[in-house]
Amino acid sequence: MIESPTRTILIPNDSEKENSQNSEEVRGLIAALRAGTRSKNLLRKAGLHAVSVYTKQFELLLGAGALEILDEELAVLRDETLYSEHTGLKIPQEGIAIFS
């Protein structure tokens, strides 16, 4: 089997039900990770609300400004419109150009 490197992206709202207890839990986990807290238990819980993507897909999302990097292994999806529990994560085909 050929191994391909993947990156982990946490989904802030992996439930389409607003104000759900699940959504509050996910946001609490992300807040702890943003504060620099790392533990096996915290990462295990966060993993339940995460997706893995290949490096190229990660770079496309990053280029589109859709990710917040937490550390070299974790990112948070900023643009929640790119995720649906029914269809998964939508990967933009190109980065977004910014003109000034």
UniProtKB/TrEMBL annotation:
Return the annotated region ranges for Disordered.
1-23
Q: Locations of Basic and acidic residues compositional bias?
A: 14-23
By what name is this protein known? Uncharacterized protein
Annotated organism of origin: bioreactor metagenome
